[in-house]
From TrEMBL:
GO terms for molecular function: aspartic-type endopeptidase activity; DNA binding. Signal peptide: none annotated. This is Peptidase A1 domain-containing protein. Residues 8-343 form the Peptidase A1 domain. Keywords: Aspartyl protease, DNA-binding, Hydrolase, Protease, Signal. The keyword Protease applies. InterPro entries: Aspartic_peptidase_A1 (IPR001461), PEPTIDASE_A1 (IPR033121), Peptidase_aspartic_dom_sf (IPR021109), TAXi_C (IPR032799), TAXi_N (IPR032861). Belongs to the peptidase A1 family. It comes from Gossypium aridum.
Amino acid sequence: MDQGSGEYFVRIGVGSPPRSQYMVIDSGSDIVWVQCKPCNQCYKQSDPVFDPADSASYGGVPCSSSVCDRIENSRCHAGRCRYEVMYGDGSYTKGTLALETLTFGPTVVQDVAIGCGHMNQGMFVGAAGLLGLGGGSMSLVGQLGGQTGGAFSYCLVSRGTNSSGSLVFGREAMPVGAAWVPLLRNPQAPTFYYIGLSGLGIGGIRVPISEDIFQLTELGYGGVVMDTGTAVTRFPTIAYNTFRDAFIEQTANLPRVSGVSIFDTCYNLSSFVTVRIPTVSFYLSAGPILTLPANNFLIPVDSVGTFCFAFASSGSGLSIIGNIQQEGIQISFDGANGYVGFGPNVC
């Protein structure tokens, strides 16, 4: 769904009878939430705002419940558990915690702890809320637990196409023939799915960046996170600058234009029918090399032929592999066994 927020949406049913809602797929956070009536402060969404009063299965969570204890920043108001979540980009949601029935196609899941957001603000344009798929106990994956073995697989369809991607839960979703690498865990940030990255390549040549830049330290700093809720991949400044400069060096024949938004490396390709550009590769620590399709790293930013190198510096030691770089590749998380797989399918 193209709402311009850089997010990927999935359509699910909330409540009984199920009300269809678009939800942002976010592997970098844990709480599942929807905007709810009465809305003290809500952004515009494409579906009618969910009204708990119309759902036979909605039940508020009392403060004494163990579910309330599992929420960071939970509070008590009139005997009901309250939650609030702040996201990295300044977006937030605040409201009441509830148990509710969610419907995924033909599958009905009862008693999912969700946030009923009465005060919400941010970059969720069009979506009713957010489907947290992170590694914590309150994410949908965490709540499904034994039913799915912490396993899910997705394929994010390329932007600008009318087809749809997929999101599948359960061990049956784990593909044969994927390139599997170990999932790293950070006790300081159990939500995040970390992977080992040893380096970056441009045009098949490894860029001279120290592997240490991508290491997750024992104290929980640094590391590389896979996140569907972030659009643009970010690397620490020193790594990004070296990586970008190597790309510029190999695209010296293309006309440069000034930067756009967070992108500092852009080109005017309006006069080209086809264009040759160097490949971009991620060297994964366990051995596989993930080479990205061109439209996963050189993306159009307007309708007149301006394309930009779709990476940015993180301004911190953390690297984030965002959804633009994940497009079109089947990505599978096997939480129980601690692996993430790339491929073999595409979408």
